[in-house]
Amino acid sequence: MRSVETVPKARERTPGFAVRAACEETFSRSFIRGDVFFTMRDGATGTVQLEQQLRNLVVLDASILIARLMKDNEEPDHGILALAVGTGDTSWPLQTPPAPTVTQRSLYSELARKTFATTAFIDAVGGTSTIPTNVVDFTTTFAESEAVGPLVEMGLLGGNISTNMGTKSRVVPPNGTYDPTVNLVEYDTLVNYLTFPVINKPATSTLSIVWRLTF
Fold first, then answer.
1. Model pLDDT for residues 146-195, shown as the tens digit of each residue
2. DSSP 133
3. Cβ atoms 119, 213 nearer than 8 A
4. Is 69 helix (H, G, I), strand (E, B) or coil?
5. Phi (first) and psi of residue 55, to 5 degrees
């Protein structure tokens, strides 16, 4: 849960500069935060095989999607609809994949995507809230036969994403030079992205992922 952070006092600055700097620092810290919680279990016994918590990166296209939603609540088709997992670039070392960058626009090698099992507002003590809050949990569970492989990347997808999870409409290249002239109306929109040391998901395990966004 996001906590209130005290902005350090400005030293040897004009009052106007100090106020502006404080506002900019507060905004940059509080815009969107993403925390990801993994739990892998044996499909037969339910025994926990892996638990992990990581912090994600909010990519540039997230701001475009938010602006579109604010402008017209009937466009785009979706806010955030699904989670995608992938095996990354073939050149990546599995235990130390490269850190994500804000220019990311899709996964490098998408293995599977799935709509959320549940979405829920979260209250100040981490429980489910019956009223809207600034924290939302997006929960996805991949069954034994789903997303089997060496996973090193994942992301949240929205915008004009197809509801057919077998369809993968990508923006390419996924990383590198960011082209702001690309019309995202024609593509999925990647909102959050994460790379991590490999999680080898076998066909005998389930993988539950809770992606918590704090606005």
1. 999 999 999 999 999 989 898 776 777 667 789 999 999 988 999 999 99
2. -
3. no
4. helix
5. -105, 135
Whether the model pTM is above 0.85: no
Q: Distance between CA atoms of 143 and 141, rounded to whole angstroms?
A: 6
Using CB atoms within 10 A of its CB, is residue 151 exposed (0-12), middle (13-18) or buried (19+)?
buried
CA distance 2 to 183: 33
Q: Note the pLDDT tens digit of each residue in 51-82.
A: 999 999 999 999 999 999 999 878 899 999 99
DSSP SS3 for 17: helix
Round to whole Å and give the CA distance between 69 and 67: 5
Helices and strands in the chain: count of H runs, count of E runs: 2, 10
Bridge partners of 159, per DSSP, are 78, 188
| Tokens matching residue 190 | 């990647």
Q: Where are the domains of the chain?
A: 1-30, 32-214
